[in-house]
Target: ABC transporter ATP-binding protein
Amino acid sequence: MLTAAGLVKRYGEVRALDGFDLHVEAGEITGLIGHNGAGKTTFVEVVTRLVKPDAGELTIYGTDALRGPRSAQKLVGACPQEIALYPTATVRDNLQLFGALTGLRRSVRHEAIRQLAAELMLENVLDRPVALISGGQQRRTQVASAMIGNPPLLLLDEPTAGADPQTRAALLRSVRARAEAGAAVIYTTHYLPELTDLVATLAVIRRGRVVARGEQSSLLSGLPSTVRLRFGAAGPAQLPPEMAGRAVREQDEWRLTSMDPPADLAALVVAGCSPTFVDVDRPDLDNLFETLGALPAGAEDQAEEKAVPASTGPSATPRKAALSSRPDTSTARTARAEAREANDAG
Ligand SMILES: Nc1ncnc2c1ncn2[C@@H]1O[C@H](COP(=O)(O)OP(=O)(O)OP(=O)(O)O)[C@@H](O)[C@H]1O
Model:
């Protein structure tokens, strides 16, 4: 179980986190969604203690995760956006190491690796060096390194990026199984149908803060449907006045924005405008993202040119990161890790 309250992280004028609040229960999968640069990875980095926030509180299963003992990190299994494994060591040796770091005894590790390899389709590559397996296999190894030891909090930052459908299905099955076993899961993705498959609750992030939170059905119920209507040859020149501001005519079809399609259809019939064709497009997660999470077109370009405070403008686009729930164990180093160190030093 995780509770973040009022987290703030500034990089110069950019507020990567700007009053970030989130509560995730044990057994819950929460999908973090938001535009590039919204602050998702920064939040994951704060939880894994790779980044120190400027303000705010974070508790993980009741432990102060910002100021408490580093051993609290054993509660967290994290899969970074970029591969952070020992490239010359085998898949098995990497998993042995991550297992040991979580405190798993040697005898238990062997069985845990066997199970994870079967679950994540890694059996055939267990004894190959990470550098010599495919990108998809590396990503599954990274996910396995987060899951080994069954940590009660899993942070998965775009774990299915670049995965083929079979790999994606295996990863999602594994994530669901961890949540069913009681883990709290925080899952970031830009591929929204995954969150439907996972029956995840959603946290929509915009400019460093959570702007919408809840079950998919309740968030979607706040969005309108689009009703496509066609009428016979003698169709109406206008729809009834109460729909005028919500309807657009496109050739022989009307598109009506509606919070209550049955009520609008009934009103049309009462007004003597019976449609000959009706099709209702219900809102989906893409619509939710466009409505709540996305920045206006062009905003990201502006952000790259000039970072402005989050309250008045967009944040800059991100650099991708290497991060790990177990700092100092990875040989993988990226621009973001170096930038972070430079920042800390400065
Ligand atoms: N080390 C850093 N130094 C300076 N700015 C940073 C650093 N890390 C992140 N930022 C900035 O903080 C903001 C949030 O970035 P973050 O990577 O958390 O976004 P994100 O939501 O994970 O994006 P994406 O979906 O592209 O992965 C961005 O404006 C980014 O440029």
Q: What stands out?
A: The chain is about 35% helix and 25% strand. Residues 11, 14, 16, 34, 36-42, 315-318, 336, 339-340, 343 surround adenosine-5'-triphosphate (CB under 6 Å). The CA atoms of residues 27 and 182 lie 4 Å apart.
